[in-house]
Amino acid sequence: MASNVNPTVRRRRLGQELRRLRELKGMTAEEVAERLLVSQSKISRLENGRRSISQRDVRDLCGVYEVEDHRIVDSLMQMAKDSRQQGWWHSFGDIPYSVYIGLETDAASLRVYDPQVVPGLLQTKQYAEALIAGALPETASAEIEKRVQVRMRRQERISTEENPLRLWTVLDEAALRRVVGNKSLMRDQLEQLVEQSQLPHVTVQVIPFELGAHPGLNGQYAILEFPDAADSSVVYIEGVTSDLYLEKANDVQKYSVMYEHLRAQALNVEQSRQFIANIAKEYAA
Predict the structure, then answer these.
(1) Rounded to a whole number, what is the distance in angstroms from the first to the last CA of the chain?
(2) N or C: the chain end with fewer CB closer than 10 Å?
(3) Which CATH number fits domain 88-283: 2.60.40, 1.10.1420, 3.40.1000, 3.30.870?
(4) Three-state DSSP state, 11
(5) Could you say which DSSP state residue 162 is in?
(6) What does pTM read for this prediction?
(7) Phi/psi of residue 47, each to 5°?
(8) How many CA atoms lie within 13 Å of 270's alpha carbon, on the beta-carbon side?
């Protein structure tokens, strides 16, 4: 395997394969846990890719599943080794949403709905600093700066010319009206948002207040899709103390349908761009 394999995605693929082997054997996660004298939660975390998988874990599981083909075992062992590599984000230390960053780094497309703020991939550095400081008032300035640096690094998926991330963002008008920092900062942020919306791989739409109730009132979420068909799409919902990752096909389908309704009800691309530009002018007045 290449040394630049994304460890987060590698863990997901390995976990999916281990789940497939367990199901082929007709065993439950609880039965496997009993055989290995570990907790059922460990087996679940290994299968959903939320936990690092050691080569010993793979060897023990292959033994339980009676995998006799040494080529399969060797392949899974190599995947376990690759999954323990470090991604670029690990150089910044402990990042609470490192799993999400790993997924975003390897995603081919990202659909985001945000009712409160401009999404991280489209934020200016000043907006990000003010937003993080306001949202996490007890956070030290060094930690705020680290989070901002990570956010700016993530934006390389948008600015790169080679295989950029396909981003589709639907914003509530509240995200544009909420003054983060000050009006001058907001003007700069919205002007950059207008500029970024003209990139061929970035689409920005706005849902104005006058639309009233709409399918996004339940809150922010993102849908990540990957270039490899073996990697299932993921719905990401950010939390205060923990995040939620939905991978079941039925869950992803429900959120995808909801997103289609949001896109259909929002202002079209040109209307949204003008809407944002008009609010930017209000901040400049």
Answers:
(1) 56
(2) C
(3) 3.30.870
(4) helix
(5) S
(6) 0.77
(7) -75, -30
(8) 0
